[in-house]
Each structure stands twice: as structure tokens, then as C-alpha cells.
Amino acid sequence: MNTHQDDIQHIVEFVNRTRVGMLSTREATGKLVSRPMTVVDVAPGEDLNFFTSRDTSSVRDVAANDAVNVAFVGDHEWVSISGAAEVVEDRQVLEGLWSDALKAYYPDGPDTPGLVVLRVRTETAEHWRSPGTVATALRWAKARTTGEQIDPGESKVVDL
Fold first, then answer.
1. What is the DSSP letter of 104?
2. Are 48 and 41 in contact (CB under 8 A)?
3. Selection from 37, 124, 32, 18 nearest residue 81 by Cα
4. CA-CA distance, 63 to 5, in Å (whole number)?
5. pLDDT recorded at residue 17
6. Residue 102 and residue 134: Cα distance in Å, rounded?
7. Which residues contact residue 37 at a Cβ distance below 8 angstroms, ignoring those fewer than 6 apart?
8. What confidence score (pLDDT) does residue 73 get?
9. In this structure, what are the phi and psi dihedrals at residue 100, rounded to the nearest 5 degrees?
10. Strand runs (DSSP E) across 11-153, as ranges?
11. Over the Cα atoms of the chain, what is R_g?
């Protein structure tokens, strides 16, 4: 039986393995918008951090409404993390989270003009796990033949 800490650790490992999530924000018009963002390594109990530019739509959206969602997709597994976002411009934070892998996007490093961290203070995560493509196909075929409802796999909400 998994403990709450085991669930959190699994989600953290999944996010670090997956790396790219779809960050959803709400525009000023109320429309939801998603865009891919690469997360900086995260540890249990930590927030999600993304490097971006001050003049991006994600920063404008968060300034108006801090409620966000970040969805990560892997092989037979999905995680949807809800939270509140903030824009961090603190030089020490930028330097502390910086890695040379980011130089491809920000060649001047932490000195890149307009560079900020978009921080998501995580609140909950919903995690789904599927038995895999073949097993799901077999479940689907059985459900079609027997008229029973397909079992979509395991789902769990975890407070972070």
C-alpha cells in the first residue's frame, strides 16, 4: 500500500523524468491557453519552476489570474498539477535554479534581459496510470464484446 509520501515521490520522479509540461493559464478574456514549458528539477515539497521572459503571455496571464495547471504526459501515465503561480525576478533565485542546459534558450545566462522564473506553488496533483496499450486494447475489446464498461485504469488525487 502506497503512503502519501510515496505518492508524492512518484509524482516528483515522473515530473523530473518527463520534464516538459503543458502550462495552462487564463487570458484576460477568460479563455484558457496552454503552452509547453520545461520544468527545472523539482524535489518533494518544492514548487515547480520554469524559466521564461517577462514579456510572455504566460507572465501577463499570471499577473491577472494566478490559478494555473501543468499537465505532464508519459508512457501510460499522466499527471495534472494545480496551483497558484507567481513571477520571480530575484537574481539569487535565477542563479540558484540556473543550469547550463538553459543557455540554448537564454545565451546570456541569468544576465539575460527580462529573464524571470515562473513559480507554481503546487496544491494538488491528479495522477492516472494505465496498464499499457495492449492491456487497454484487450480491456476495450472485452468491454465491446460483453457490454460492460471499460476500466480506464488507476486514478488518484494527491494533496501536495
1. G
2. no
3. 124
4. 32
5. 95
6. 37
7. 20, 21, 22, 23, 50, 52, 58, 70, 118
8. 95
9. -65, -20
10. 20-26, 32-38, 48-53, 67-74, 77-88, 115-129
11. 18
Joined together, the cell numbers standing for residue 140 give 476495450
First to last CA, the chain: 19
The number of CA neighbours under 13 Å toward the Cβ of 103 is: 4
Written as nine digits, the cell of 57 is 503571455
Cell numbers at residue 118, please? 515562473
Whats the size of the chain, residue-wise?
A: 160
Question: Cell numbers 484576460 label which residue?
Answer: 28
Map residue 41 onto helix, strand or coil. coil
Alpha-carbon distance of 11 to 77, in angstroms, equals: 10
| pTM confidence score | 0.82
Of the candidates 17, 25, 18, the one whose C-alpha atom is nearest the C-alpha of residue 52 is 25
77-92 tens-digit pLDDT: 999 999 999 999 999 9
